[in-house]
Amino acid sequence: MQTVAIAGVGLIGASFGLALRREGFSGPILGVSSPDAISAARQIGAISDAVSLEEACSRADVIYLSQTVDRIAETLKAMGPFVTHETLVTDAGSTKVTICAAAAQHLPDRCFVGGHPLAGKETRGAQSADAGLFRGHVYILTGMQGRTSPHFATFNDYLEKFGARVVQLTPQQHDQALAFTSHLPQIVSTALAAALSGQSNPHLRSLFGPGLIDMTRLALSPSDIWSGILNDNREFVLQAIDRFCDQMKITRREIASGTVEGIFESAREFALEVRKNAR
Amino acid sequence: MQTVAIAGVGLIGASFGLALRREGFSGPILGVSSPDAISAARQIGAISDAVSLEEACSRADVIYLSQTVDRIAETLKAMGPFVTHETLVTDAGSTKVTICAAAAQHLPDRCFVGGHPLAGKETRGAQSADAGLFRGHVYILTGMQGRTSPHFATFNDYLEKFGARVVQLTPQQHDQALAFTSHLPQIVSTALAAALSGQSNPHLRSLFGPGLIDMTRLALSPSDIWSGILNDNREFVLQAIDRFCDQMKITRREIASGTVEGIFESAREFALEVRKNAR
To answer: What is the pTM of this model?
Structure first.
């Protein structure tokens, strides 16, 4: 792994570049992105050069696609004619079924591994990038036919050096689980903020405690990134919404009848368990 | 204000005692609570002595009720025969209509001011207390007939010294606003954790990012405190749940049809505004 290319040097792509540098990678890091994103990423040292997608395909041993999920599918199609058989192509998209299918279609017999770092922020762009973004978080790898690339082992080693916990799943398992643990919390935060925003009571904008701040953090997330994710994973996302709305109905009924303790206990147990597993 | 009594020395009551000490109050701080709570509060210096409610009524210039909301109503009834006409009685309960009505009934012609510091944690007890808990947060005062107490001005000055932003509302305005900005976020966090907890997919307990951690923090809150709040404010809480569930239905429809941008924009605007107002 002498040369790396990053397509889409926003929060995740630029953090990947910074993390490579911090862990001692000294080769060229090529950026494929818009002029503004390139300029921000170069300024913080996340990339060394700006190149076209075609040049990235001819020069890089590892190509890291960290664009929005719909753009990643387009990029896989566009790079099809140029990717060599040894190059490792991987991505950081928040959905995996569609992207792995696009890779199978457009990069047949080439080395693709789908990826998804379960790390992020509600802010975007290289200016929010952080070499430590992946530390302590799960990094899912999926669609593993690309492990035949001679560069896969080195790439995987870097993920470990970043402090990420690498987990392998099928694309289907990934999209189903994340519909519940990532996409649903995003939707709930957005719907909560939208519901309050639709009320005319002016006190709702000034009288709140720290709980509302936590519960509306995800509502700050960029809509263009999320509309791609939600469109892509629509089926599992609608299932997750339906389960949540069923639970809201049960909760409403228990509040109406004055017996909420049971729901609080199972919720608390789950919240404690995810905190234990997050360590 | 020579002597203060605190009934219920949990997180809020013990933080009130610590904050008084930090701002220079040197008189006795009497605690009325269970033996375990008294012991924890005395250990951290939040109270100086343990007394009965009757003794607290005869000795204290200010009596601070920081129990669960149903206990506060009971305490108001129990203290009725003992409170003098000059003593300021105030509380820190999360609902205000019922408590102010109980004070009007059981302490007629005495000095009661309802209170609610919009600060808190998902943990409980004096061991979580913090002299800085109120800093930067709104402190609502309501049912203001108690400002005729000669001790009200000093009490109010201490709240300002704690760094709280004192806001006056009617009990009704309080309960309606907090149903949306505090009770609804609590219910949504609990329902989200309960919905995930009810799924058999084992990945839901290990594959998640920082968003799920934020969105389930409130789900750690103690059920006994919250069942009292939700029972007490049931009517407004059910209204808030219904508005939120309407918004979830709209959001589901927009995800199904692939047009979520509008909801994200209004949600983001609201989330930005509350952050600006939190400063």
So the answer is: 0.90
